[in-house]
Structures are given as C-alpha cells and as structure tokens.
Amino acid sequence: MDLILWRHAQAEVGEQDFERALTPHGRKQAAKMSSWLDRSLPESCRIYCSPTVRTIQTAEALGRKFKIIDALGPAALPQNIVELAGWPDARVPVMVIGHQPWLGQVASLLLTGTVQDWTVKKSNAWWISNRQREDGNEVYLRAVFAPEFFLD
Fold it and tell me: Do 87 and 5 meet the contact criterion of CB atoms below 8 Å apart?
C-alpha cells in the first residue's frame, strides 16, 4: 500500500481556524505540488481531505475528485488517520490532505512504530509505502517533496 501525506499550503493567520484560506504564496505552493502529484499518483488513488478551507483549497489545486472527511480535522489522532486510510491493507493508494501535528505523527508511527512529533512543512508531501515480503512487511519512505523543489 502507498500512503501519501500532504500538508496544506501556507494559510492566512486568523482566529477562525476552520475558515483560514490559503495566502497567494500558499496557492503557488499548492499549484507546484499538485503538478508533481498529479503526474505521480495513480488514477486509482483515493484522496481524503480535512474539512478546513485551507485543506480544501490545497486539494482543489490537484484537480481530482476528493472526499472531505470531518475526522481529518486539525485535532485528529494519528491512530485514527492510519485506520481511516486502511493502512497497511488498502488495495489502492490513499492520499490524506491535512494538518500538523498529526501528519508528522502518522509518518513517525508508520516508519518507527511510535508516535513522535515530526515536522511536515507546509505543502510538503511524504510518500510512505508498505509491501509484503516473505519474511514480513517492509515499510519505507518512498519520497518527500517540497514545493521549492520545482521551478516556477
């Protein structure tokens, strides 16, 4: 299984957390990342998105169908995200568009077996894979990309 964790792009500062929209810089970040993701993700990839404005705007930059899931809000727990994604048994890749700190916590849980406070920077995508081997599962970090890797 492949699980892609994509953090929302840069958003405005504000007290209404769920209503914060992307900044102009955030829109550019989302566009750069979505270009690479669209070329790299299989058509069968399921895309799940937090219900906040900034994550929805990040998802919209990809131009693919996605499902908004309330359980992916800013206060989500890493174990719930792993379960929602169907890790490690989902038959198709899953991308989750969400927030810190749980994106970093999900990455650490899958890669080390423990929840740690790792940082996933704004608009970065972490691609984590799991494959079955004769001697058990193998979990590995396939890629980490940031929007600044791509030319304007």
Answer: no
Q: Give 45-70 pLDDT, tens digit per residue.
A: 999 999 999 999 999 999 999 999 99
> Checking phi first, is residue 36 left (phi over 0); if not, alpha (psi -120 to 50) or beta?
alpha
Q: What is the rounded CA–CA span in Å between residue 113 and residue 99? A: 20
The string of pLDDT tens digits covering residues 106-126 is 999 999 999 999 999 999 999
Phi, psi of 54 (to 5 degrees): -65, -35
Unique residue bearing structure tokens 């169908």: 65
Q: Go through the chain and tell me how many residues it has.
A: 152
Q: Is the CB of residue 125 less than 8 Å from the CB of residue 37?
A: yes
The answer to whether 93 and 48 have CB atoms below 8 angstroms apart is no
- Label the pairing between strands 46-49 and 67-68: parallel
Domains (ranges, CATH) in the chain?
2-149 (3.40.50.1240)
| Residues β-bridged to residue 132 | 137
Full-prediction pTM beyond 0.85? yes
